[in-house]
Structure formats: structure tokens, C-alpha cells
Amino acid sequence: MSQSKQQAYRLDTGGRIDRSRTLSFTFNGQRYQGQAGDTLASALLANGVDIVNRSFKYSRPRGIVAAGAEEPNAIVQLGSSEAAQVPNVRATQQALFDGLTARSTNGWPNVQRDMMGLVGKIGGQFMPPGFYYKTFMAPASMWMTYEKYIRKAAGLGRSPLENDPDSYDHLHQHCDVLVVGAGAAGLSAALAAARSGARVIVADEQEEMGGSLLDTREMLAGKPADQWVAQVLDELAGCDNVTLLPRTTANGYHDHNFVTLHERRTEHLGETAPVVHGHRPVRSRMHRVRAGQVILATGAHERPLVYAGNDIPGNLLAGAVSTYIRRYGVVPGRRLVLSTSNDYGYRAALDWKEAGHEVVAIVDAREAPKGDWIDAARAQGIKIITGSAVIEAKGSNRVTAARVAPIDIDAFKVNGAVQELACDTIASSGGYSPVIHLASHTGARPTWNDEIIGFVPGLVKGVQACGGANGTYALGDVLVAGIEAGIKAAAAMGKTTEVVNAPSVEPLQQGPAVALFQVPHEKATTRAPKQFVDLQNDVTAAGIELATREGFESIEHVKRYTAMGFGTDQGKLGNINGMAIAARCLRRSIPEVGTTVFRPNYTPVTFGAIVGRHCRELFDPERYTALHQWHVERGAEFEDVGQWKRPWYYPQKVNGKTETMHEAVARECLAVREKVGILDASTLGKIDIQGPDAREFLARVYTNKWEKLAVGKCRYGLMCKDDGMVTDDGVTSCLAENHFLMTTTTGGAAAILEWLELWHQTEWPELDVYFTSVTDHWATMTVTGPEARKLLSEITDIDLDRDGFKFMEWRSGKVADVPARVFRISFTGELTFEINVQANYAMHVWQTLFKHGEKYGLTPYGTETMHVLRAEKGFIIVGQETDGSVTPEDLGMHWCVGYDKPFSWIGKRALTRSDTKRENRKQLVGLRPKDPKVVLEEGAQIVFDPNHAIPMPMAGHVTSSYYSPTLGAGFALAVVKGGLRKMGETVYLPMADGQTHEAEIVSSVFYDPKGERQNV
Predict the structure, then answer these.
(1) pLDDT tens column, 631-685
(2) What's the 3-state SS for 63-113?
(3) Whose CA is closest to 659, among 678, 684, 634, 640?
(4) Omega cis (within 30) before 109
(5) Is the pTM above the cut of 0.90?
(6) Which of 64, 172, 889, 929 is most open to solvent, judged by the fewest CB atoms within 10 Å of its CB?
């Protein structure tokens, strides 16, 4: 009966595996053999591996239950090397390949003898739902320690500690019809849509397309169903308008028929992608599909029955038993007891019997079942026990017997003598639940259907469900439903389809199923052996009962209290049973209790597939200015500002020694204050704004007025979010009557452009205005210092005279024979000219400036020097002096707020709230340390009373702090509660090392308070 000693449960014939190719693999350090076409799960069953994992909470031994995505127990860690580690892979979905290495995610020292299992066995009764919440609340300081051991005990897989050698990518696609699922309904729908000429994508999560047709007992047109599958796939593969995606899971269904598909391209070939023609193909791909119409042909999941001991290895779904026998040639045991509430469960017993193994009994919860499969079972001489169910599985590491008893479903009690049947396998079937997860992602609520004893998906525009996904289970009806869905979807896209005939299917006589979820036991649920509802999360029927007794009535609350449907399982097997138990306890119907909300992802998706190519150097692209190479050649140190690489400072060699940052910044600061410096400011955001309503738009997004800004003039503006808090600042210049150039912070440029578009498109579409990012188009060179006018006058035709070219004005002309815009704007407090030229000419202009600037001591300076210079003047940096809780008034910028504008503007209403008018709000001030040598730490907390008991009330914090070579002392900007009313007062800054610094509150302007130097 067995193929080999190593594969003792493998049949000699049958299945869709390749018996000519034997593969070796390792599980928990033990070497085994399997066949090409196996999954890891089928290969483990073929080798008689009973325990594949330990449970999440109680560390109970767990075996394989299912054959697909619904498998809750066989969650394994893959990889023989550190770099190849992949956590939490379902053994039922992992194709076997030669050399595969896997191990259980839980079990110490090993899965067979787990020490935590003793804790679960002895202390399990003391670990009900809420155990962790109630037990580890105190002392609070110990939670981090508790969490460490709780997580370790939970047995979750681990991420690799080395870089992934594989690559991943994304593919953006559009199609007329997306068909999710390639079983009978999906293939029929795809065929009908494809023949119309519609662009069709078919995605199916299994290794082979065909779904249940690959292991069905039924015939299509008098032939094995897999022949029809092959015929349809051949036709679809030959259509230029069809894309077939096997091994592809639709993991998320989003708005407007946007569906993400996770394609596992090489995961069936090896633990890393094989080298093909000198390079590795991508391991997996995320398809981002926008579909005109979506057909959900995702089928249905079989529900297990909930009975005592239903988690002992050897308990399987009836449908999974048939799949392993008919598709993989594996019988997962020797002696079977089947417990069912419907006709479909009988297939497992018939397949088991035909495989030459013993069916001890079929236990049917119905009193008088009738139908073709019942007749077939009786013809095979199989014992059928009616009106009964398996109430308890016996055994420890493997099922040894089934306790069977008559039950009263309505009264929820055992109403007869219990008999014990010796067996090693129990298969159960409580009916089927349509796979509604994807439809639920859209926000559509499912509806209960009493006829199928399950929820059917709620649907939104542009989506259909057919076949098992819509509660249609008879094969002939499924095929017809698929064809109708395909024709309807194609028609919605303007396509017409020729008549598509479904293959003939001999109808089966079937009796009605009975609604059985939890099987009663002789003892009360809380006293009986554990009856598991959610096998992955160790949620029991007793736990759900307890949750309802403790007052949790909403199924969403029950879910969170018990963890039902959490994790990678997403309620595939247990949710309906859990809802039914909650409904019984609450004395409500299942529709009244409702279902939980399913969220993406349907099954786990690796971070690699989510990230795609957006990693390493492409994770956050580095942006360089047109002058970057010059900075590199001059030895600049760089800092990241947004995505830009900006020169931080320029260390020079002095007497053979390289300057420190402190020394370089001091030199650069003095050069600007005493002579002339130059900054590459090209990274500042630049947004070109045009249109007849440009002025009004600016006045709505800025806090100040813009209607009178003349051509050639510039104005500083503050921008607030609708909560009244400062979000950006910058100078906007009037280039023409309806044409403006807005500058933004470097890091905020993209967000501000998006902000402008958001308000224009959603709130003020009537305004005729449009925006263009020109940040990369223009290079900006800031020439600043007392000698700036002399230097620039040598290479420009623009009149730079003080009276002819005033502060906060701009002029156009030529600089170094290049067309340029020159702005008199200062962020240093010195005489400053900002030169804007087309970026391709930037290097020429920059080098010309240095050629002429040598005699003036022209010095390049970086962002650190820029920070010191602007802080000396009290100029803010958004994101440093602001943190999302600072208003213009908090910054002392009342002059920049136009409350009397003729219309509202973003943030105006929020700025009139009582909270934003409080006198003790944190306000921007300067701090002068009592010890001039001290440079306060940025972020240091400020208190008024250093002797106050801990915890001290915090009065504010330091936002910017530097040493100023100009002032010869350290200084800082800070936000302090009521700070503008506390000038001259002393505040204290306790440090972590025990020191406490003293500082005086002063004006935020430390240098040239009258602004005379920038107006020379």
C-alpha cells in the first residue's frame, strides 16, 4: 500500500504528483522525502509526521487540519541560511522543492517535547481570555520584562538577521475583467469574458489552476473534471487578451476596483530565486491592478465542527482528507471516523474507503440523511450513525479514539449513551462558508443566508460573486453562474460574448444540511475538555462563553477580548463557529450578532513583495543639486534634508589638521558676518502659481494678505493647517499680475504642493489657478555678507543700488551672462542676494562667482552655519521651532496674521478658539545661558522650579541651540509657557547627568535687532 518506507502514507497510485521525481527536504532537523507536485503539508503527511507545531497560548501539540489557505496550525519557518529565513509560511501553500528546510515556529526544546506544554497542561485552566490583561497589569515597570517572555512563548516566526539576497518588484496593470479564483466558477467566468475580447486577468492562489475540480469525484461531460480544466486553460493561455496568474493571491480589495495581487514567482523553486541566464529573477511580485469589473470566484471554506479535543493531531477537515487523497496520493491515517452535518462530508469517507483504508463509521448529525453520496456509502458497507456527532477526540500526540453520542442540536445537549470508536483520524464537516474576505475589504457588509447556513458577500458597484463565494455549491450551478458572471462583466465593459455552453454535469441528489457549529458534551462547556474554535489563536468555546458573561456583546468586542480571528488566520475556519457560539450564549440569531470586519491582507505577504524595488538605494532616492559635484570635490560633509544631500559644512585643513565641525562652522559664520559667504540653496521648494485667482488663493492658504503685492515685490508668509498650527513658511514673489513664485521649506516642498492641490481640487475648484513644481528647474545661490553687493555687481547687469533694488524685491537680468532672477531676501540678517538661474547653467555661474569672489574672501557655507546665522536673528525653521502645536501668535508673529481679510483662510477659525488664545501657551523666546560657555541641548526640558519633586512640571523645551562665534557665547531658541511675558526671568534645565543649567529668557533676536545690516 505504501510507496516507500519513508513515505508510509503515500498511495502507490493516484494523485497529480510526479512520482518520477523524488525530492528531499528537512523538517525540524529530520530528513524526509516527497514528490514533485507535493506541498510541504502533503509531504509531511505522507511521511506520517503528526505534530507540526505547538499552539499559540497553551503549547498544545498541533497537526495539519486543512489543505489550503485556511490552514491554522502548520505555520512554519523556512530557510537553511540566515539570509533565507521566511517566517510564518503555511505548509499547505508551500510547494515542495529539493533541499527545502523548514521548522516549527514554536516548541522548546523541540516540538515533540515542549516544556511550555507543561505550563499549558497544568495552568491552562487558569489562563482564560483576558488573562494577560488582568495578570500583568502591575507593577507597570515590569511590563517590558513580561512582554519579552510572553512574546517568546507565543511562538511567532522570526525575521532574518541578514540581508535578503532576492529581489522583488511591482507591476501596475489595468484590465476590463479581473477574475479572482480559477476553480469551476472562475474558469467559466474567465472563458466567457475572454471570448468577448475583454482584457482579462485570472488570479488563483494555488500551485495549479482548477480549484476543487482537481480532486472532485464528479465528471464533466462524462470525463474527469481535470480534462475540462486543461482544455479551458489551453484556450485562455492562447488568448492575447488574457493573463493567467497561478500562485497569485488577491490579498487586498480597495476602492474603485483596485486590487493587489501577490504573485509567488520562484518560491516553489528554491529558498532563493535560482540564477537564470546569469541573473536571479524576482522572487515575488505585487500586481497593482485597476479593473473595470471584478468577479470574485474565491469559493468557500469548509467549517470544522467544534468538539472536545478537536485540536489533537489527526483531526482534519473532511474536504482536506479528500484533497490529500485525490490530489496528492496521501491518506493521512489508517482508521477514519467522519463527523458531518451535510452530504459533502461523505466524499472523505468514500475516498478513504476507495484508497483501501478503513472507515470506522460516518457519524451524521441528521436523523435521516438521504442522497446519492449517502447511498454510495451504504453500498460500500460503511457504518452510518445518524442523529449523532463526535463529542470528543481522545489522544495526546495523535487521535486514538472518537467518543460518539446522540445529540439534540436545538437543546444543545447529549441525549443518549456515549460509545467510543477506536481510530487515528477524525474528519469533520460543519458545512461551508463563502470566502467573503475580499468583498469585506470594500466595506460592504455580508448578509446571512439561512439556506446555505453562511454569510454571502455584500457587493459594491463593479463586482460580482459567483459559485461557492456566493453560496452556490452544486457543480452544474457553479459552472452556469460563472458563465453568467463573465458575460455580465464583459457587457458592462461594452463587450458582447457568444454563447458559452457549460459542460454537462450529472445532477446529484442531496439532502439539506443541518446547522451544527459547536457539538454539545456531557459536561458543560466550561467543564468539558477544551473545544477549540480558533485553532491558531487557542480560542475555545468556553472562552467565548466567558466573554459574553463578562459583558462583551458586540462580536467585535468578543473578537478582541478572545483574539478570535486574529493573526494570519483572519477567521477563515473559526469565525462563523465563534459567532454561532456567541449568538447562542446571547440568545440571539447569528445575523443579529453579525460578523467581524475582515481586513487586508487575506494571507500574509512578505515585506519584500510589499516594498518591491523600493529598497536599499531606491528606498528613498537621493537628490543632488546641480552643484553637488563641486561640493564633493571641496570635501563637504553632507546631511540629509528631505531627500536632498545638502552640504553640512566644509572642513578645511589647517596646519595639516582637518577642522572639526565646530571649527569649520565658526570660520564660515565669521566669513558671512565680516566678508561674504555663499550657500547652495537650490533645494528650497519652488512652486510656480498662475491664474486669475492666484492672489485670492494665496490669501486663503497663507495667514497674511496678498491682494496688494506689486509685481517685483516679495513677501514672507506663514501657512497653517486647518487646526491653526504652523505647517510651513517661505517667501512668495510676484512675477506678474497673476503669476507668483512660492518658496517652501526643503523637506516640505512635496507635501505643500499636495496641500495646495488638495484645497484647490476639493474645496475651491471654482478658483482659476494652477500649480507647477519648479524646484529642479532653478538653481539658487545665496550670496550674503557685507561684500555681497560689490561681488555681484562685477558679473551682473542688474542695478544693485540700495534705493533701486530694495529689500524684499526681485529683479531679472543676467548674471555671468546667464538669464537670472535675483531676489533681495535674507535668512542670515546680512545684505543678501539670492540668484536663481536655470539649473543647467548653475555650475558656470557658481564658478564665476568664486573667480571674482576670491579678492572678497568668498566662503562657501553649509546648513549648520545657516542654522547658526538664522537663529542669531531669531528666524524660525518649521519643524524645529514648530512641532504641530505652535500657532503664529506663539511665535510672536502677530504681524503676519490678517484677521481682517475679506474671506476666511486656512486656520483662521482655529486661531479664534479659546485654547489658542490661552496666555500660558508655549511661546518662542531666546535663552541666554548664565554660563556663556554652555551650549544647551536641543530638546532639553525647561522648568521654573529646579527643586520641585519629580516629576517636575515642564514649562517648555529648547528648540535650537548653538555656539555663536559672533556673540562669543552659547545661545538658544526655546518655547516656554507664557514666555513673552517672562523676559529677564531665569529658567532651569535639569540634565540627565544631574547637572542643572540656568538661563535667562531674552528676546529671540540676538543679532542686529533693528535689521539694519540686511538693508544696507
Answers:
(1) 999 999 999 999 999 999 999 999 999 999 999 999 999 999 999 999 999 999 9
(2) CCCCCCCCCCCCEEEECCCCCCCEEEEECCCCECCCCEEEEECCCCECCCC
(3) 634
(4) yes
(5) no
(6) 172
